[in-house]
Amino acid sequence: MVVRFARMQMRRVLVELGSEALRSVVETAEFYPVRGLFTFNDFFKELDPYFKQQGSDDIGVSTGWASLDEFYKVVPGELTLVTGVPGSGKSEWIDALAVNLVESKGWTFALCSMENKVQEHGRKLLEKHWKKPFFDALYAGGRERITPQELEIGKQWLNDNFFLIRCEDKELPSVDWVLRLAKSAVMRHGIRGLVIDPYNELDHGRDSHQTETEYVSKMLTKIKRFAQHNGCHVWFVAHPRQLQYWQGEAPNLYDVSGSAHFINKCDNGVVIHRNRDPSRAPLDQVEVLIKKARNKASGSLGSAVLSYDRVTGLYSDIARK
Questions:
Q1: Which residues contact 56 (CB under 8 A, 6 or more apart)?
Q2: How far apart are CA 84 and CA 252, in angstroms?
Q3: Cα→Cα distances 173→168, 169, 179, 196, 197, Å
Q4: Can you list the positions of beta strands (E) in the chain?
């Protein structure tokens, strides 16, 4: 049908406008568009501003820590895998990073944090925002706590910048369920960041014929596709497998429980490692190791050491000598 219509149109051009007009039509004709098949010309309008760095987010947003920016910046549309042994501060570090991005870039976040109670998560975020302890408790060390007025202002700040993805059912949520709600958060609230914390709290029911490696590969592909299609950076927390002979060293990305696809599929791989040996370094020092950086324009392999303030949950650069 399409070919017949094209022939009719060409005959009409020949009869009404002549052979030269027909030649011009044939020589300048474009291919019929095929869904999913492109040329780079279709994307030059995006490549030019990228070259001119007009969209600064495309080459990475500062984490808020200069020492870490040398190795890791946050790029919309990418997936960062975060791991570390229990108690190393993975979730705390991501919260601190999110607060930095809210306050410096105006980003908003969807938080699927299944190990946090809502009130506890709110407390942690507000402590980082106000740089004060939430309670007048032993951990505060005598520092002035958040005032009632600051609490009221902070509640509005939480409401404006963080949106919660929580499953109130007895069953564990699936990745598809999380991404469906995250898509709604993109459309309704314009979120720029999504945190899924942690992997082992999700429902990983898979087909009987599907191996765990195949399942993880498919799951991470879905997450990456969500990130790319929505210009949203995703942080995905995964615990390392049980380290029977662990002696305090930082784990490797290949230690993540589940599959090597975690390191194969992610754009960035981050290990959070807290010092537990006072003879080696101060106990408030946390090492952020960048073990994978796919995008050389925004990251590279390396590590930064940050100082952790237990009272407020804040991380800060250590002054270089």
A1: none
A2: 8
A3: 9, 8, 10, 11, 12
A4: 79-83, 109-113, 162-164, 193-197, 233-237, 268-274, 285-293, 302-309, 314-317
pLDDT digits (tens, 9 = 90+) for 271-303: 999 988 787 778 889 999 999 999 998 999 999
* Burial annotation 239-267 (CB, 10 A radius, 16+ → b, else e): bbeeeeeeeeebbebebbebbebbbebbb
Q: Which tokens belong to 300? A: 């590279």
Which domains are assigned to the chain?
62-317 (3.40.50.300)
- Rounded Cα distance between 68 and 318, Å, is 11
User: CA–CA distance from 242 to each of 86, 128, 246, 251 (Å)?
Assistant: 10, 31, 9, 11
CA atoms within 13 A on the CB side of 105: 23
Per-residue pLDDT tens for 178-232?
999 999 999 999 999 999 998 888 887 777 788 888 888 899 999 999 999 999 9
Q: Is the peptide bond before 198 cis (omega within 30 degrees of 0)?
A: yes
Task: Give the whole-angstrom CA distance, residue 130 versus residue 295.
Answer: 34
